[in-house]
Amino acid sequence: MTSSEIPTDSLDASFNYTVIVQRLTGTVKWFNNKAGFGFITVCEPGDYNEKDIFVHYTSIRVTNSQYKYLVQGEYVDFTLVKANDNGHEFQAMDVSGVKGGPIMCETRRTSVSTMREPRPHVPHVPHASARMPPPVRSRTAPAGPPRGRGPPPAQQQQDSPGPAQAAGADELLGFTKVQKKRRGKPQGPGPVPIPAPATATA
After folding, report:
1. Do the Cβ atoms of 55 and 68 come closer than 8 Å?
2. Are 23 and 77 within 8 A, CB to CB?
3. Whole-angstrom Cα distance, residue 57 to residue 34?
4. pTM beyond 0.70, yes or no
C-alpha cells in the first residue's frame, strides 16, 4: 500500500491491537506533517530489524500540548503492536525520544520559545572618563609680556647697540664716522702784546 492509500485516521483510541514488543528503537524514515502519518524503520537486531512500521501522529507522546510530528532521520523509541482489525498489521504506539526523552518537535519548540524570551535589561554604565566633570578654565590671564608692538623694555635695552658696538659695526661696513665740531664763536689769534713805553735816560 502506498502512502496516498494510507488513511490518516488509521489509529483510533478504540481500535483493537496486541502488543508484540514493549520497546523498540528505530529511525524515522519519513513523516508527512500535513497528513499526520509516516513510517519508522526498526534499527535493532531481531525479527523486525529494518522493517518499516506505520506510525500515526496520535501515537506520538509529548509533554506539552502542541503540534505533534516526527522529523526524518531522528531516533525514537516505540511500542510495536499488531492491529487485529486495521489495514496495517504492525504499527508504532507510544512514540517518544530515545530512553523516554523528548522528540525533536518538542526540543525545537523549546529553542524557539527561548529565543523569543526578552533579554534582561542591563543598565548602561558610562565610562569613567565620561563621568568626570570638564576642567575649569581660569579667567585670569597668565603673566606675560605686555601687549604692544615692540619688544619689552628689557629686550629693547638688550637689543639696542651701544656706542662701541655701533662704531664697530660702522667700521665693519667700511664707513668712517666723522664727528661734527661744535658750533661756537670763531676763535681768532690771541691778544697782541703791547710793548712797554721806553723810559728817558738822564
Report:
1. no
2. yes
3. 10
4. no
Q: For cell 609680556, what's the residue?
A: 145
Digit-coded pLDDT (tens) for 25-54: 999 999 999 999 999 999 999 999 999 999
User: In 47-186, where do the E strands start and end?
Assistant: 52-56, 75-83, 90-97
Which homologous superfamily is 17-114 in? Nucleic acid-binding proteins (2.40.50.140)
Which has the closest alpha carbon to 70: 100, 112, 33, 24? Answer: 33
* CB burial of residue 82 (10 Å; 0-12, 13-18, 19+): middle
The pLDDT tens digits of the residues spanning 158-201 come to: 555 565 555 555 555 555 555 555 665 556 566 666 666 666 55
